[in-house]
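S1.2 Input.
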Amino acid sequence: MKKLLIMGLLLMNGHLFAQTQQETEILKLSEKMFKWEVDGKTDSLASLFDEKFMVIGRTGDIQTRSQYLATLRSGNFVHNSVDVEENTATVADNTATIVGKGKFTVTVSGTKITLHLSYIEVFTRRKNGWSLLALHAGILQN
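S1.3 Output.
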């Protein structure tokens, strides 16, 4: 009886953390976004960012879609690499969220730094597919 109870708990626990097809799809889209940031593909990013996109950076600064794209295009803020340590997606109706953490190596005004960040991405499903509505990152203690 004890073995049956343990197996049942393990199966339920595994089910809770299994990703649906939509959640897997949104995780792949997030991965693609990070690749575009590292590769400097701002036109691809522009097509992913919703018109109402807002980003809250690690220092609490808020930027609109056009401001963030201008920052990326300026060359003063460059993503050198993104190493996602963990992430999980949740899809509910036309909204998807990704919560994760990772190491982000960036160059800011010529200075290269590595940041250990937690982040949340909020996507919305429009007629032409998913678009990123909001992004927030915060510094983790090492």
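S1.4 Remarks. DSSP finds four helices and six strands in the chain.
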